[in-house]
Amino acid sequence: MNDVPVPWAPLVGEVVAIVPPDWEITTPWAPRIPAEVVHIADNLVTLSVDGNLRLRRLHQIAPWTEAPR
């Protein structure tokens, strides 16, 4: 059996985090924006942000988590 971990992948309809184009998703202080997954094709993800479509690669998004208040 192969014990290679499966990378995280979102589902259509799931809310994920994206960052502005000039930021890296791995930067802890980058401003995160919630986006809904509309379509996934290979490593490209189409997202909806306030009704506008955005295209990102899988490595450019992360699971959405609410910041503690």
Q: How is this structure best described in words?
A:
By secondary structure, the chain is an all-beta fold. Helix content is 0%, strand content 39%. The chain contains no helices and five strands. The protein has strands spanning 15-18, 33-41, 44-49, 52-57, 62-63. It has a five-stranded antiparallel sheet with strand order 4-3-2-1-5, with no helix packed on it. The radius of gyration is 13 Å and the shape is globular. The relative contact order is 0.27. The mean pLDDT is 87.
**Using only CA atoms, what is the Rg?**
13 Å
Which percent range describes the beta-strand content?
35-45%
Mean pLDDT: 87
Shape: globular
Number of strands: 5
Question: Structural class of the helices, strands and pairings?
Answer: mainly beta
Kindly, what is the distance between the CA atoms of the first and last residues, rounded to a whole number of angstroms?
43 Å
What low-confidence regions span 5 or more consecutive residues with pLDDT below 50? none
Q: How is the largest sheet built, in terms of strand order? A: 4-3-2-1-5
N-to-C SSE series?
EEEEE
Can you summarize the main beta sheet?
Answer: 5 strands, antiparallel
Helix content: under 10%
Number of helices: 0
